[in-house]
Amino acid sequence: xxxxxxxxxxxxxxxxxxxxxxxxxxxxxxxxxxxxxxxxxxxxxxxxxxxxxxxxxxxxxxxxxxxxxxxxxxxxxxxxxxxxxxxxxxxxxxxxxxxxxxxxxxxxxxxxxxxxxxxxxxxxxxxxxxxxxxxxxxxxxxxxxxxxxxxxxxxxxxxxxxxxxxxxxxxxxxxxxxxxxxxxxxxxxxxxxxxxxxxxxxxxxxxxxxxxxxxxxxxxxxxxxxxxxxxxxxxxxxxxxxxxxxxxxxxxxxxxxxxxxxxxxxxxxxxxxxx
Length: 275
What we know:
Layout: H1 2-30, E1 36-40, H2 54-64, H3 75-83, E2 88-95, E3 101-107, E4 110-116, E5 119-124, E6 129-131, E7 142-144, H4 152-163, H5 166-171, E8 172-178, E9 181-186, E10 192-196, H6 201-214, E11 224-228, E12 236-239, H7 247-274
Parallel strand pairs: 1-3, 4-7, 7-8, 10-11
Antiparallel strand pairs: 2-3, 4-5, 5-6, 8-9, 9-10, 11-12
């Protein structure tokens, strides 16, 4: 008999608890969605960006839940939609026990800005493209030319090396791809540094630095239109034809070429005569 009473008490407790839980859940689900917290997450080491307008996110959440009831929030669908925002790297949406809706957003951080065929957009450090923003412009290096998606990560690595090296940051302000070759645009604006492919970047920059410290510092920068470090163990310079002081050098070089051509022609003629 005592055993039966004990079982009845347990059963009654479970039923009452279930009714209370059901009532609480119904009340919770019907409660208005009043507290919404949008949090921008900035991982350590990454710079802050401001592509996301919190008001736009709030408006989107309200449109996604027109009834404004907590129970009508489709959290997985909401999280998926926010993750699809172009400048969102990742989003986490969850409810607190007090009914507050939390949205944690980590934004994409541009590695560089790419101008390809007149189209401008950002590329982040993971190699993802995303559009420019009407509300925020992030200061980052401009890259120009037909850069392929498969090269994004290497270009991002190159930009990072430039931005974190005192020497490179002082000299290089942009990157341009011409054909298959990459060129570093210099702050002087008179010449560009041809690096060719994106392989052995450290060695190429080191070669240019040696050229600057041992030779270019004693020259006028407008003397050259191009400094090439694309070849192993050698630096090739191209004189700037628009620089007046180069006229005599270019003229002398032209005369030497004409003279060389005449000598070769004479040698060819003499060889033909002997035959």
